[in-house]
Amino acid sequence: MKNAVYFQSGGPTAVINSSFYGVIKAYCNTDKIDILYGARYGLEGLIKGDLVKIEKDISKYDEIQYLNGAILGTARRCLKDISIDDGYQKVLSTLKKYNIGYVFVNGGNDSMDTADKLNNFFLSIGFDCVVIGIPKTIDNDLVMIDHCPGFGSAVKYVVRTTMELFLDINAFNPGRVTVVEIMGRDAGWLAASSVGAKIFGLGPDLIYLPETPFDIERFIDDVRRVYNEKNRVLICVSEALKDKDGKYISMDEKLDSFGHVQLGSVSKYLVSLVEERLKLKTRNIEFSLVQRCASHLQSKIDREEAIGVGEKAVEYAINNKRGMVSIVRDSDKPYKSHFELVSLSSVANAIKHLPLEYINKDGNYVNDAYLTYIRPFIDEEEININSGLLFLKK
Amino acid sequence: MKNAVYFQSGGPTAVINSSFYGVIKAYCNTDKIDILYGARYGLEGLIKGDLVKIEKDISKYDEIQYLNGAILGTARRCLKDISIDDGYQKVLSTLKKYNIGYVFVNGGNDSMDTADKLNNFFLSIGFDCVVIGIPKTIDNDLVMIDHCPGFGSAVKYVVRTTMELFLDINAFNPGRVTVVEIMGRDAGWLAASSVGAKIFGLGPDLIYLPETPFDIERFIDDVRRVYNEKNRVLICVSEALKDKDGKYISMDEKLDSFGHVQLGSVSKYLVSLVEERLKLKTRNIEFSLVQRCASHLQSKIDREEAIGVGEKAVEYAINNKRGMVSIVRDSDKPYKSHFELVSLSSVANAIKHLPLEYINKDGNYVNDAYLTYIRPFIDEEEININSGLLFLKK
To answer: Is the interface score ipTM higher than 0.90?
Structure first.
């Protein structure tokens, strides 16, 4: 009987550990896997042979489903082309040493690319090992899946915090021009989710996303118009706005060690523009790591699906199926979904942008159609603050 | 029979509206006050005569106890010396016009100074009007009170978010040097509260507060030492660190319209220092407005006490007592407190700093004694994440 290994890859989320919990849970319920290992610090753990043995007793791991972070440790290390990366042989050596026949890769696009590369490598050399991808990213930019585990909890954080900021900013008259910067890299899904606060009458005034070219003059016009009308402006922006030439709008740019652009603060840049051009008081707020950390706002649906893709990964693996576990939405209300397997190569490195049909024609807001998509995560909010605005009439 | 007016002053908190709710609740239970008004946008509302009438039906206001912000509107406008400020006469004119005999001022130090000035003004001209202060500030820097309404909820946010950031940062190896910037102006109470995360094994490595002079060389030594030991550093700092000459440590300084120093980002400055001097990867995170907004982490004790000081203010007023309603702690565990009246002049403009006995001798951490002080707000946390670190042994 073969052993299995699971590792976490890329940025932590509020529910990546829930997927780990799901893998352990399925492992405890099968007699097809002898030992389950966790590789520490992502692919690095497989390369270095740094594995920990997981006990076959789910009761010891109950709490990890509620923990943010990546409790095995994670890394950005991915596999490059086989001609230049000695990682393949080192991983193979570890797998042989530990008699591993199943590899579970829990991550986003880059990680699915690594899973795909490993899978192809094993097939090409006839090494008997099944690779399964378990999706994870708050950016929600994986293709072939309705939404990614991690996204729902981040949506819940963004919506709730936008509502609270709305209430804070509306307390002053005049209020400031406040620019909130939200993660998502080149995809606007998470920043667009700030529109959810509108359900409670506490939505942002303007939303800018990387899917439409950012025009500084139009932005200044938008801010001036809203300020003249409301005496304050709440703006939510994606961290990766680009102008019509594809150049990032931000204070500064640098490349990280894997060649990805590290973005400077777009919100800082935008408020400096507003101060200079409109002479208004401003504030910029970056949700920063907190938006992917906020396990106290973990979405129940998100957690359950994260556990589900982990469990399902084990089920596919022991039936000798390869690919990434995907989530398919069956209905919006009541919200229902099921799992399917999709090919790793179809997911690897592709980016799913927010469809333009969700963005208004002026490129400064999100349509109500998008609310249907994110609503399952918002409807978990238990606190109704609808009527809190009775004193805020202009 | 006289009427009453209530107004909100200074920065919003997660529970200032709970105090408003308490005032309304007590108003609904007394026959000594005819009409209760709310002044919109703080003292400005009293100056301009912009009042709204509150209905004598508490059921209409149930939700506001859970809302952050300042739903009547607030302002930083305070009273200056009577020789240069025409606000006194304008307020008097509004009070006479609306037959007001009770004024409730809900705010922090500056607001208590305004309450004191109003009170003295009324006494000096023989105008029959009782002024009562209702405390509020996340900075917790009022004297003559065990802790201020608003602080407990902010503590809960800081502790919980520090725990979550710890888990996120520990997911990478090596991790970054992360500097978290926490509000509090010249008092370190809130930044010190980050130590609460230590109860769960998820505390920061270093804490710097404005009560001890900040020394750059010692800071660099501290960071180097912790990094060498742990491969990552989590640092919590107060927004208003000062060097031994009393100069603020920050990127830039400006004065706001009331002469208060507007601080530049100290965390941004500190990470730039670490990058330059130690060549390490860094990140700075500002909790910004979110720490005073987070009504989804509203503390139950904080909310109940905020309601209590509001109710008590009405009780004192109708018994012709003047002053600020204070909270006295009777016991730590089980936590118990009661309310007392203290003089406005004793509170006005004074600042209660974090006592040095809570700070370690190296000035880079907070002693366990402080945990006893903040523990009532932390013990409300329902999620036990103690054992989540089982994989994170070095």
So the answer is: yes
